[in-house]
Design goal:
By secondary structure, this protein is an alpha+beta fold. It has a single domain, classed as Immunoglobulin-like (Sandwich), CATH 2.60.40. The chain has helices at 2-18, 123-129, 152-171; strands spanning 26-29, 36-45, 52-63, 68-77, 85-89, 95-100, 102-108, 113-122, 137-141, 145-149.
């Protein structure tokens, strides 16, 4: 009997532990032209490139009813890496989107560089990307390219979170 109670308890705790409190992951601000939604920074993209340090952190800003969203990100490298373009690729490296990067700042930290940039992309594409089974790849391109992608377990949680926030956008528009 105790084994069954323990099994039920562990299953319940596991399920509750996996549910995400999305209200902490985004904010919205009512505006005259529609709600502005902001997905708080998510530090989930990793790179196997030796130049890249830490994880790439991204956030999304979207004004409900518009056809594009701002995908803003911070990345860390050993040396200055000014990017010109951002490409979004499938896990098989097919190009889904390419856009001009807007660099906000490049600043030195202890022994590395912190850089912040953004790209504007179609909201429909962004929503579609998070519906895929596998993580898309972010390719930052300048004099060279550095790719970032989420690990499968991280992707599963992250895509569920973002899709839930997109549902909030849809139901409140």
């Amino acid at each position: 009997m105790n084994k069954y109670v323990l099994l039920i308890l562990l299953t319940t705790v596991s399920f509750v532990g996996n549910t995400q409190k999305i209200h902490r992951q985004y904010s919205f601000y009512p505006q005259e032209g529609g709600n502005v939604y902001f997905i708080h920074p998510q530090k989930v993209f990793e790179s196997g490139n030796d130049e890249a340090l830490n994880k790439l952190a991204y956030d999304i800003t979207y004004l409900a009813g518009k056809d594009s969203a701002s995908f803003t990100f911070t990345y860390y490298t050993h040396n200055v890496f000014k990017i010109d373009f951002v490409k979004l690729l499938t896990d098989k490296k097919d190009v889904l989107f390419e856009g001009k990067a807007i660099t906000y700042f490049i600043q030195p930290e202890k022994n590395y560089w912190r850089q912040r940039a953004s790209v504007t992309l179609p909201y429909e594409l962004l929503a579609k990307l998070f519906q895929e089974d596998n993580s898309f790849i972010i390719s930052l391109t300048g004099e060279k390219s550095v790719n970032y992608q989420m690990k499968p377990k991280v992707w599963k949680k992250q895509s569920q979170l973002v899709l839930k926030i997109f549902d909030v956008v849809k139901y409140n528009s």
